[in-house]
Amino acid sequence: MPRLRYLLPLLLLAYLATGVAQVGPDERGVVRRFGRVVARPGPGLWVGLPWGFDRIDRVQTRTVRQLPVGYSQEDASDAPGTPSGQLLTGDQNLVNVKLVVEYAIDDRDGELDRYVLHRDRVDSVLGRTTENLAAEWVGARTVDEVLSRRGALAAWVSARLPERLTDARLGIVVQQVSVEYLSAPDEVRDSFEAVNQAQTAIRTRLNNAEQEAQRQASEAESLRLRLTAETEAYRAEKLKQATADAEAFRGRWEQYQRLRATNPDLLAALWREEMAKLLNVIRTNGRIELLDDALGPNGLELNQFLPVKKR
After folding, report:
1. Are 113 and 140 in a shared domain?
2. Are residues 240 and 215 in the same domain?
3. DSSP result, 135-194
4. 63-83: per-residue pLDDT in tens?
């Protein structure tokens, strides 16, 4: 009997202790009393009513969770029929798609309450919605486009997933969607890889051809600019020389016009002067033989220039 007297208080204390909980530094608690949320304690010690009255759920709000969605090699080998994540493209081909959704708990009061109420179905709803979005994207494109645009698939799903989850009120924040696996089925993978290699080789050759074309175009442009500059310099030089010659001729012509009025034999004198210069050049480079029958009353009328004989 004395033992019972001590046991009852101990049991009472143990029961009251069920109302005490420790909330971790990266957690928030949601306290429900008879199903209604009455408190959301932060990190530290929480003291409430004992079990049966209060229920406290501790949620790690700073932890980023990862949910794999779609194709799994293990599930595909065990399950009959079409495995999860095997999607149909717009041109009636199959592709295996596996996405990874990263999400965190929304620590705002109302959203935190929703997560606690629906936490048991968060992963199933999130996975199903994500796979439906992936099926929409894949079904609108050809198999070649799907296999070559992993980043586009992830970006498209990431942009639309939060809106699709609005009505579900899961109390989570989707942070990122990435593609972990995207490939053709094993039965046709080798053929697709061969096609991809051929397409890669074609793109490589096209890129090389474009680079070569750009190089040749650059060289041709450089040559055009150089020739243009040389032509312009040659034109300017010839124009300058022609202008100088024209000015010199104009000066001599004006001088001749002035002198001819006082010296009627000026033209003959000028001719003899120029011929003397020419004969001096010819004597330096060759030999002159005078022909007697070319002599007339006015002097030499015909010259025969013979080249110097080589010895």
Report:
1. yes
2. yes
3. HHHHHTS-HHHHHH-HHHHHHHHHHHHHHHTTTTT--EEEEEEEEEEEE--GGGHHHHHH
4. 889 999 998 876 655 555 678
